[in-house]
Amino acid sequence: MTNLLLALVLLASLIAVAWPFLFYPLILRLLPTRAETPVVGPVPSASLLFCAYNEAAAMPEKLANLAMLKARHPTLEILAFDDGSSDDTAALIAAQGDLVTLLRGPGRSGKAHGMKLLAARARGDILIFTDANVLLDPDAIDNLLARYADPAVGGVLGSLHYLGEGDSATAAVGSLYWRIEERLKDEESRTGNVLGADGSIFSIRRSLYPEFPDSVLDDLTVSMAVVFAGKRLVKAKDVIARERLVTGRKDEYRRKVRIAARAWHTHRHLRPQLRRMAAIDRFKYASRKIVRWFGGLFILTGAIAAGVLALRLSPMLYMTGAIGIALLAWIGLRSRGGPLAALVDILIAYAATLQGVLKAMSGRTVTTWNPAKSR
């Protein structure tokens, strides 16, 4: 392999890693704005749904938040699914029977299964999905339902604001990543459709709720059904949800492996419909999903190309670089903050995502979840 070819492989790897965070946002900014066209009509009814497993610590604050939302919206239906919790989660929810209707699972069956049961039970025109540890701002429901005044809008995402950014390097990296993610969704929404939601806060018209297996990510599957139906999936900056960041590396690693594995299964399940999307939506999906899922592979390929190139140019340069990188990685792993710790956490996140994708490609999946202990 010639030095030129090695340099080209290194350059291509760097571009691929930077694509979702640098080149893709720049391209989005060049696209025209697609305006919404609201019409005068009644405010639709809504059902708020969430699943919980061993969230007893978060339940008092969650239930107080729901009571506040219910006071502002007396007709809001609130449904919860307990996935066989071994703590007091179900008891705490059941004690608020006038506020929340509780469905109990037979054991560990997973969030996707629970959400399907809740959606089948819900009566609201709009289904609002959130997580057990997420709190909504007082105006969130008002602002969310207002976007459905446009009949072309089939789904609305909210904005997630993380708490605890300074608690650890892992939390700081997670917060930075999510701020970038939020800006990308803002630009995608401005130019047409957001390509997928996360489970913290999003909504769809009940008539668009799809059928799907328990092995997929329900939030991605359900939100993409809006795009497949020819409706708009948009993001509302003023629909604000708040969640505490994961601060432990092990917790975050396991979380990313689980999400990536289920995301790949979701991709395979949705592939026939993805191929029928408009060209601009296929471009968005590939840029924000597929390229990012394989970011760890691009980093590994680039590192190998850089190492071989350095070795061909000068063995001393190769040895010096290898020792320097190993030393910086050691310092970063032992640090709780600072740029080196942040860099290590970024690399760990890429490794976890790649492991999850490879796990799913081998046929394995994850249907259940556990709350992070370091939240």
TrEMBL record:
Tell me the domain of life: Bacteria
- The answer to whether UniProt assigns keyword Transferase to this entry is yes
GO MF terms held by the record: glycosyltransferase activity
Keyword line: Glycosyltransferase, Membrane, Transferase, Transmembrane, Transmembrane helix
The Glycosyltransferase 2-like domain is annotated at: 47-209
Which spans are transmembrane here? 290-309, 316-333, 339-358
Q: Which SUPFAM superfamilies match?
A: Nucleotide-diphospho-sugar transferases
Is Transmembrane among the key words of this record?
yes
Q: Family membership, please give it.
A: Belongs to the glycosyltransferase 2 family.
Q: What is the official name of this protein in its record?
A: Cellulose synthase/poly-beta-1,6-N-acetylglucosamine synthase-like glycosyltransferase
Query: What is the originating organism of this protein?
Result: Sphingobium scionense
